[in-house]
């Protein structure tokens, strides 16, 4: 044994594999039997799943949550309500009949765009705060 090896005990020699069976690390050299990982030149891409589509590619690219059962509000403005005949009561059925909304079952919200020129009876649950103020200011009635 060399003198330098005895003096430098803190520096450990790396294991030299594939140097014959007498070393205890011969034959397959710690790589097991056949297969891709036992071949020379093998390098594994992180997340590789043997040709199957990687999990990282299956997952959504953008973060966050999208609620697919969400029903968005259908919006109606005060200008649109003002164009309707003044004697009818404003509710989801009359708005649907006049073509202002697509579905009478989905929620409707009145937005403050424009002004009401005549008194109305409005029977809709969702009304923006500014629209509510201008409806009351015009002398219209909100039925809840």
- The 3D shape can be described as rod-shaped
Average pLDDT level: 88
Low-confidence stretches: none
Distance between the termini: 98 Å
Q: What sequence of helices (H) and strands (E) makes up the elements? A: HHEHHEEEHE
Q: Could you give the count of β-strands?
A: 5
Q: What name does the CATH topology of the domain at 74-142 carry?
A: Ribosomal Protein L15, Chain: K, domain 2
Query: How large is the share of residues in beta strands?
Result: 5-15%
What is the overall number of helices?
Answer: 5
Kindly report the spatial arrangement of strands forming the biggest sheet: 1-2-4
Give the key terms.
144 residues; alpha/beta; Ribosomal Protein L15, Chain: K, domain 2; three-stranded parallel beta sheet; two-stranded parallel ribbon
Describe it for me?
The model has no long low-confidence stretch (mean pLDDT 88). This protein has a domain of 69 residues: Ribosomal Protein L15, Chain: K, domain 2, CATH 3.100.10.10. The chain is built from five helices and five strands, in the order ααβααβββαβ. It starts with a helix and ends with a strand. It is α/β, with parallel strands linked by helices and 144 residues long. The relative contact order is 0.11. Strands 1-2-4 form a three-stranded parallel β-sheet. Strands 3-5 form a two-stranded parallel sheet. 21% of the residues lie in helices and 10% in strands. It is rod-shaped, with a radius of gyration of 38 Å.
Record the SSE blueprint.
Elements (H helix, E strand, L loop, with lengths): L2 H5 L47 H4 L15 E4 H6 L8 H6 L10 E4 L9 E2 L3 E2 L1 H9 L3 E2 L2
């Amino acid at each position: 044994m060399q003198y330098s090896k005895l003096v430098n005990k803190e520096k450990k020699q790396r294991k030299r594999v594939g140097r014959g069976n007498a070393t205890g690390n011969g034959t397959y050299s710690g790589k097991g039997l056949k297969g891709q990982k036992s071949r020379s030149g093998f390098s594994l891409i992180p997340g590789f799943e043997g040709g199957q589509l990687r999990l990282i590619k299956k997952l959504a690219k953008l973060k966050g949550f999208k609620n697919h059962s969400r029903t968005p509000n259908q919006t109606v403005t005060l200008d649109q309500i003002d164009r309707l005949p003044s004697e009818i009561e404003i509710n989801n059925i009359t708005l649907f009949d006049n073509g202002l909304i697509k579905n009478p079952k989905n929620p409707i919200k009145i937005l403050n765009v424009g002004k009401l020129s005549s008194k109305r009876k409005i029977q809709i649950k969702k009304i923006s705060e500014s629209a509510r103020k201008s409806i009351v200011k015009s002398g219209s009635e909100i039925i809840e």
